[in-house]
Amino acid sequence: MRLGSGTFAACCVVIEVLGVALFLRGFFPTPVRSSSRTEHQAEPPAPEPSAGASSNWTKLPPPLFRKVVIMLIDGLRDDFVFGSKGVKFMPYTTYLVEKGASHSFVAEAKLPTVTMPRIKALMTGSLPGFIDVVRNLNSPALLEDNVITQAKAAGKRIIFYGDETWVKLFPRHFVEYDGTTSFFVSDYTEVDDNVTRHLDKVLKRGDWDVLILHYLGLDHIGHVSGPSSPLIGHKLREMDSILMKIHTSLLSEERETLVPNLLVLCGDHGMSETGGHGASSVEELNTALILISSAFERKPGDIRRPKHVQQTDLAATLAIGLGLPIPGSSVGSLLFPTVEGRPVREQLRFLHLNAVQLSKLLQENVPSYTKEPGFEQFKMSERLHGNWIRLYLEENNSEVLFNLGAKVRRQYLDALRTLSLSLSRQVAQYDIYSMLVGTVMVLEVLALLLLSIPQALSSEAELEVPLWSPVFSLLFYLMFLVLSALHVIVCTSAESSCYFCGLSWLTAGGVMALISALLCAVGSALAKMFADGKFLSKNPAHPKARWSELDVLILLGTMGHVLSLGASSFIEEEHQTWYFLINTLCLALCHEIYRNCFLRDDCEPQQCSHVEEGFVSPAPALQDRSIRCNMLEPHRVSKGPTSLDTLRGYEKWMVLASPWVILTCCRLLRSLNQTGVQWAHRPDLGHWLTSSDHKAELSVLAALSLIVIFALVQRRCSLTSKVAMALGLLGVYCYRAAIGNVLFPWQRDSKDISKGVIEARFVHVFVLGILFTGTKDLLKSQVIAADFTIKTVGLWEIYSGLVLLAALLFRPHNLPVLVFSLFIQTIMTKFIWKPLRHDAAEITIMHYWFGQAFFYFQGNSNSIATVDVSAGFVGLDTYMEVPAMFLTAFATFAGPVLWASHLVSFLSSETSLPGGRTGTWL
Amino acid sequence: MKDTDIKRLLYTHLLCIFSIILSIFIPSFFLENFSILETHLTWLCICSVFVTAVNLLLYLVVKPNASSKRSSLSYKVTRFLKCCIYFLMSCFFFHVIFVLYGAPLIELVLETFLFAVILSTFTTVPCLCLLGPNIKAWLRVFSRNGVTSIWENSLQITTISSFIGTWLGAFPIPLDWERPWQVWPISCTLGATFGYVAGLVISPLWIYWNRKQLTYKNH
């Protein structure tokens, strides 16, 4: 089958995507789930264990608290409450933690540290998988068993104010709610005022049982200006006063009713040193959790350090506290200090309920559950518990009873810990079979791609894919049969669930056929290559072009980068790899340029006399000169002489200086944004610029950057786009001034900050206009086939439209990244690629390297925490999913996208040159 | 090219390696608490002095390029001064490159500079000894097919292997092993040293194995 290289590549990409998807489906763990979801209520609660004598306590114990208020502060890191910040800004909370009737914990969140999975974890006690991150933006209703559903079923009245995610997760659960959207990250006062304004009214009323408040402001401040910003202190003080208000109101109510209430202060996830969240650094995982109630007794002088617990433990504790059954898929264990004040019989009953629930979950998820140590411990403590009940009912000697009770309690706690641990471990199991099938598919396509590279890059850009002959060969059918048999064997004998076995037989058969066909294709391509290779070696007419040092570096660097991803540190610090590689690339280019310049000068001394003045050349060098010139093998014979010799003096100096200029630019950019994990906390220029003291400097820098951007981009635009570009960049500055990032020189006092929707839309119009003109030109060039120049013009227009969009979306302190990107592109084009005549493959890989490096120069990293979600709301009034996702994605990947777009435009303009060097390309 | 030449080359290289080994062990007799990792800067200075001394000595004794025709004292003095200036310039040049590669600009200046000094010792000093302060000759040696004797060939190999060693030495820095030798610039200086030693060992062997193919045009 003959295919164009484009079609072939597209097919390969599609199959690769399928393979990767299958692999990922196996790789991401299936969450531990309880099979009984909604019918849980029908099940009677486990009765008290008894040995011999009958215990009649089979109902659920009554609720411990009358009212529960959950105050969830998004991004409440543990040291915001327990650290020095807490002491300074949250005096009331600190008083409660140190002296009041409260229990404080450091609750450890599990990955991913993003709000929606964390809310799920808090309310269900289960461990949501990674796949929930994707759904974070658009959360469907929670179907799993959870505390809220249980409370509603028990007739509790729940009121909710705060993040809209809750309303989506629990539709029709709240008797009253007011959701605030969490997407205007730059707004950190209004989101919280929208929650607090209901508070006075609600606290006075008595017609509710559970009140949930979700404050987003702290997290937004973190996203915008990081955890060390002065805004954090203000926000913490505000939260402290709100907590005091709620607590005093609850206390005054208790005085009338004499039944204790519970106030829970917790965070959903922490905040990294850069202010984001989503990854697994200690700062992101550790959150504060404080339970406050007058039921918790405390002796005066009793100082406790906050204990480390799991975040999932809250669900079980809340369920017990409200007198509800524990959610079925909860893996948490009861926070024992909360029930310490109760009589021993009740304590044991609570522990027993929790242990029964966990062991049931274990039975459902682990086939060999009887061998689990936690299960054995549970059975033993249940027996002891029975003994204790018998003694208790017989009203035996109190000391024996007390000792036995303490022993049972200890055993239960051990059992709970072990059970919880082994359940959490269950989450980290892979579906090896699906992963294997995916890997095989990907590797086969990769082999096919590699084998057909020489053919695909040849001049006719077409290749013969040996697909039909193998399909009818014996090997294919044999392979297919063997694989199918294997599939049946694996699927019938598998113990754990497997996604690939869950597919229909037809689909699985199709995949097997695909795998065997690909294998046959690879085999025949290999055979063909060997045949050709033999032919070639007999026929020495093909001189093998020697690789230059640059080619070796480019190849080794790209492969080395891929290999480096095997180590997790190199993934965390991937930016270092790229910075290192592009530095080395610049030095290699430098070496090439200097050799080309100076050694050529030796042969033609009249050409570059000003260079020679600086150097004393002793006798031997002069004598050798003529010999050497003959000896020098011009290693770019195939590409013709480099055009370095034809350059004039000034340009020559520019060529010589350009690698150093690029290196300096890269060094400056490197210190603009510290990223990664190990050195992310280091001070950088970006933080210096964004701090409120340096607003004037930031404004000057942003204005300068916008001017330089215009100067660099306008060369290639038509007149109309030049005007559009200028107006657009002006609009960008107005937008940044409107949202308060930068200042107008004539407006010293900061006026009220708006969302800048009008200004941003003004820019959007110009972006769309420029993109539209570009697309129009492209379409025109498709119709008028012979005209290459129109196509090039269109591509450059699209490129400048993207630059304008990036200028709008980048934070002001990141505008220099855009400037330097354009600057380096200009320098490389003018002084390196054109004079040195690099070929298309080299230029493509260099673009790839620089694109990757610029991804990190923007301050991104491989952690999801560094994604700037605020970029998705530029020019939008309300949250609109598709544009917001597009804008966020573009802002994140602006570096690679701009370099890729530059590559396409540059290659197109080079090939379209009149009498161009199409021969040197490919 | 005779085998005796190669033998001489081998002996000089062994002497260089010996000087590096000495720089590790001798100071511990005179200085307390001396170890490569803990008192790294001291070791860097000592090693650089040792290697420079041995190189100069070998240059004076072996005289690989007997081409200095003028031998007046003033010429020698200017030549020596020029060599010193070149050496300093190369130190600063390497320092600038390290900063461009991401070394901190203000903190750890001394460490970075001493690293530049030791790398200059491994690369620039042999070049200066062999080729003199003559940039043209340097460029010739370090371009493809530009060498004219086994000494220059071995110079090319040792210098390039020092650079590659330094380059590879930067790799462990981002790893989270928390080892003392991962601190800047220890892994790089160690990489440079290993690269230099490897170059010293490899170059005579390589020249010996390829002695049939190697032909130097002006010999």
TrEMBL record, chain A:
Region (Disordered): 34-57
GO BP, sorted A to Z: GPI anchor biosynthetic process
GO molecular function terms noted in the UniProt entry: CP2 mannose-ethanolamine phosphotransferase activity
Cell compartments where the protein resides: Endoplasmic reticulum membrane
Topology with respect to the bilayer: Multi-pass membrane protein
Pathway named in the protein's UniProt entry: Glycolipid biosynthesis; glycosylphosphatidylinositol-anchor biosynthesis
Primary location: endoplasmic reticulum
Listed name of the protein: GPI ethanolamine phosphate transferase 2 isoform X2
SUPFAM superfamilies: Alkaline phosphatase-like (SSF53649)
Pfam families found in the cross-reference section: Phosphodiest, PIGO_PIGG
Domain GPI ethanolamine phosphate transferase 2 C-terminal: 651-910
Family of this protein: Belongs to the PIGG/PIGN/PIGO family. PIGG subfamily.
CDD domains reported in the protein's UniProt record: GPI_EPT_2
InterPro entries xrefs: Alkaline_phosphatase_core_sf, Phosphodiest/P_Trfase, PIG-G_N, PIGG/GPI7, PIGG/GPI7_C
Listed transmembrane segments: 6-28, 432-453, 465-490, 510-531, 696-713, 725-744, 756-773, 884-907
TrEMBL record, chain B:
Keywords recorded for this protein, A-Z: Endoplasmic reticulum, GPI-anchor biosynthesis, Membrane, Transmembrane, Transmembrane helix
Principal localisation: endoplasmic reticulum
Keyword Lyase: no
Transmembrane segments: 9-29, 41-62, 83-106, 112-132, 153-171, 183-209
Pfam family, one: PIG-F
Subcellular location: Endoplasmic reticulum membrane
GO cellular component term of the entry, any: endoplasmic reticulum membrane
Membrane association type: Multi-pass membrane protein
Pathway assigned in UniProt: Glycolipid biosynthesis; glycosylphosphatidylinositol-anchor biosynthesis
GO biological process terms, semicolon-separated: GPI anchor biosynthetic process
Protein name: Phosphatidylinositol-glycan biosynthesis class F protein isoform X4
